[in-house]
Amino acid sequence: MGAPCPHVPRMEPILSIRGLGKTYASGHVALKSVDLDIRRGEIFALLGPNGAGKTTLISIVCGIVNASRGSVLADGHDIVREFRQARAKIGLVPQELSTDAFETVWSTVRLSRGLFGKPRDDAHLEKVLRSLSLWDKRDSKIMALSGGMKRRVLIAKALAHEPAILFLDEPTAGVDVELRRDMWNLVRELRDKGTTIILTTHYIEEAEEMADRIGVINHGELVVVDEKDALMRKLGKKQLTLHLQAPLAAIPAELAGQPLELSDDGLSLVYTFDVQGERTGIATLLRRLADQGIDFRDLNTQESSLEEIFVSLVHRGGKGGPA
């Protein structure tokens, strides 16, 4: 995992979501009164299981789905009353590979730019295509491209009109490792130039490396929104693993009540403690182990990953698991 990015985004929101809800005709409630501010120039990762409401939220902001209630301002423009101005601020890379198969790469990105009323700027489009390793394919028909290349075309189309806000809905799902690496390099470059990035991803390690802030959504509700580092400090657990000199058949009764787990082979004891706690309890544990004549040959600690925090949040805040 790479080192945390030193970038510190400016604090004013570029996207303000208030009381946003969506109930479909079937009665299914996809979103329940979501409030969220996205800061200008940050990378915000929206995590959640399938059916949690991630795509519904993005689709409303991008004008694809109508909200049942609530409001959204995109760079100061109401997405309903000022649809054209709001939508011109937004680029979307959808999950589905939906492109005009008979168009060339060059013509489809030029058309995409024109749809938003932007003046012709071939130099910008060339720069976008080169950054996505698509320049050599500019005259190729999209139908002739591989799945990974088609994904790159979607990204190029989203960037053609120079949006201030870029939505990436599962952008690296099912793509090769090379494209994923190129994609995240491009995301960093865009953010460094001031573009605000909102992404949904199933690759939690990517969110852990890339995001400034993280939101977790489940059953249409935002379970938590916080700075990535603060989230990991507050909700993270540490585990102390003691590698024993001799195997134990069971945890002694004198240690009952301690947050201990014994490995299947009886050779390791795992003690879980709260990072934020005033006392870890480790000193007491080691004394009790000594009193019981339990010797260990080695020990090491491990902090929980963002994935483990995500799973615990979903189970804690959910109603029976993923939708």
Automatic annotation (TrEMBL):
Domain ABC transporter: 15-244
SMART domains per UniProt: AAA
Alphabetical keyword list: ATP-binding, Nucleotide-binding, Transport
InterPro entries: AAA+_ATPase (IPR003593), ABC_transporter-like_ATP-bd (IPR003439), ABC_transporter-like_CS (IPR017871), ABC_transporter_ATP-binding (IPR050763), P-loop_NTPase (IPR027417)
GO MF term (any one): ATP binding
Cited Pfam families: ABC_tran
Protein origin, superkingdom: Bacteria
Listed PROSITE patterns: ABC_TRANSPORTER_1 (PS00211), ABC_TRANSPORTER_2 (PS50893)
Descriptive protein name: ABC transporter ATP-binding protein
Organism field: Arenimonas soli
